[in-house]
Amino acid sequence: MVRLELALAEKRYANSQQTVLGTIRAQIPAGQFVALVGPSGTGKTTLLNMIAGLEASVAGSISVNDQPVIGRQPDCRLGYIFQQPRLLPWLTVFNNLQLTAPERSAGEIERMLERVGLHGKGEQYPRTLSGGMQKRVSIARAFLAQPELLLLDEPFVSLDLPTAEHLRGMLEALWLEHQPTVLFVTHDFDEAIRLADRVLFLSAAPGSLILDQPVELPRPRSDLDVAEWKTRLLGEYPGLLAGKVVASDSSLWE
Ligand SMILES: Nc1ncnc2c1ncn2[C@@H]1O[C@H](COP(=O)(O)OP(=O)(O)OP(=O)(O)O)[C@@H](O)[C@H]1O
Question: Which segment of the chain is annotated as a signal peptide (predicted)?
Answer without folding.
Answer: none
